[in-house]
Amino acid sequence: MxxxxxxxxxxQHLANERTFLAWIRTAIAIIGIxxxxxxxxxxxxxxxxxxxxxxLTISGVSxxxxxxxxxxxxxxxxxxxxxxxTQTFVSADAFIKMMAVxxxxxxxxxxxxxxxxx
Length: 118
Known about the structure:
Blueprint: H1 2-7, H2 10-43, H3 49-86, H4 93-116
Helix pairs in contact: 2-3, 3-4
């Protein structure tokens, strides 16, 4: 019965999978921003303890946020899958708002870091 129910909504399930993969790519990009910032910082010839702390903070926060996005998107994928099968789909308003806040936080950290280079 489960396969019949899922095959009835193939397009919705495929769209859900594409959305999940987009969130995974987003998480990888967020983590990459942290590594890039840290790498650029430590490859520069400047030594500044404040900038070192900012660079390490950006890296740590990016890793934590990236992992949170992976966990959140996985939970969201399975919740959406269930809602598609039971025809009780609800949009992801809270998840979208949370990701907007997360992206803003990462951007603020990177901005503070780049302004501290001057």
